[in-house]
Design brief:
363 residues, alpha/beta, Aspartate Aminotransferase, domain 1, four-stranded antiparallel sheet, 35% helix
Length: 363
């Protein structure tokens, strides 16, 4: 075998099932935004000069970084743009963690972190979340003495649980290694939930963001992060030469600029999330965190999560089932349009009637 020995037993990251697109498909399994990206993107490209694609893209995405800086009131020197957040995650492990060092990761969370750690021969210390999936910061810190880093996805995926700014500050005041705070879903949480401004106080903090969720731009693969100038300079040193193509840079900038459209879509997703949460409770589901563009839920009586997943897949309604510890009796449902959620609920009601179940919620 030609590969490095530690990769021989590696299990790669497994993304959610991606069904073949058709007009009847209701896709609620990948936390994609149910609404299209800003129409200003399409307008911009009506007059786009495609001749410029003969040239290499701007190596550091300078214009895009300036756009992000203006929106978030952060210096350009504190911003890095990557080919999706996934590239930034890989760069962080490449640049900041030695082989055989250790990183603390709560369980459950975004599984790519553990996969990337294994790729770079970094050990993971998985700390179980509480019964309600909340993160116990004391548990995290008590295991951190020999750790080089702590990873926290906030709000967490797939639970939707949010850790408060005060608790993040508590960790930062106690731990001097690298703290990776992934805020992919933060726009769907309450105002002032973000820890972004803390990078101005804590030089060991890095905050990740993405255009995939709240900006409806999964397809262009654009992530960005905020950190001290020292951390950003390392990321610039070790990134690929032209890591973000010209089209992605331009699309991202146009999408970011349209604040009115962005805010309007956010409110629609939040409103539908509230409605879906109430309906699921009435159907006998327990609901966990409501801070992202999805809901993790558990059928409280009778029906099994996998059976519900299979039943909904028949009429082309796809939600997420996790066959792993603590999640196998639960389902994650991405927030869709009002019409998509109507169809989902009609089918859930139909299933309940067919099985003759009587649900009582404990929420």
């Amino acid at each position: 075998m030609l590969e490095r020995k530690h990769l021989q037993t590696l299990e790669g990251y497994v993304s959610g099932f991606q069904p073949t697109w058709n007009n009847d498909l209701i896709k609620l399994n990948s936390n994609e935004n149910p609404y299209p990206p800003s129409p200003k993107i399409k307008d911009y490209f009506k007059d786009f000069n495609f001749d410029q694609l003969r040239f290499y893209p701007n190596a550091k995405s300078d214009s895009l970084r300036e756009c992000i800086a203006n929106i978030y009131d952060i210096d350009v020197e504190n911003i890095f743009c990557g080919n999706g957040s996934d590239e930034i995650i890989s760069l962080l492990f490449r640049g900041f963690f030695e082989e055989n060092s250790s990183v603390i990761i709560p369980y459950p969370t975004y599984t790519l972190y553990e996969t990337v750690a294994k790729i770079h021969d970094v050990n993971t210390i998985c700390i179980d979340t509480e019964e309600d999936f909340s993160i116990d910061v004391d548990k995290i810190l008590s295991s951190s003495k020999k750790a080089a880093g702590i990873v926290i996805v906030n709000p967490n995926a797939p639970t939707g649980i949010l850790l408060s700014v005060e608790k993040i500050k508590f960790i930062l005041n106690q731990f001097k290694g690298l703290v990776i705070l992934d805020e992919a879903y933060i726009d769907f949480a309450d105002e002032n939930s973000s820890c972004l401004q803390l990078i101005k106080t804590y030089p060991n903090l890095i905050v990740l963001r993405t255009l995939s969720k709240s900006y409806s731009l999964c397809g262009i693969r654009l992530g960005y992060c905020f950190a001290s100038k020292d951390i950003i300079s390392i990321l610039d040193k070790i990134k690929d030469s032209y890591n973000i193509n010209t089209i992605t840079q331009l699309l991202a900038e146009e999408g970011l600029k349209d604040r009115a459209y962005f805010n309007h879509n956010l409110e629609k997703v939040k409103s539908t999330r509230t409605r879906l949460g109430h309906e699921l409770v009435n159907l006998g589901f327990d609901i966990y965190g409501q801070n992202a563009n999805f809901l993790l839920c558990k059928p409280n009586n009778g029906l099994e999560a996998k059976a519900i997943y299979d039943y909904l897949a028949e009429p082309n309604i796809f939600i997420r089932y996790f066959d792993q510890p603590r999640l196998a009796d639960k389902l994650r449902i991405s927030i869709g349009t009002e019409k998509e959620i109507d169809i989902l609920l009609i089918n859930l009601h139909k299933l309940v009637r067919e099985k003759g179940m009587s649900f009582e919620s404990s929420v």
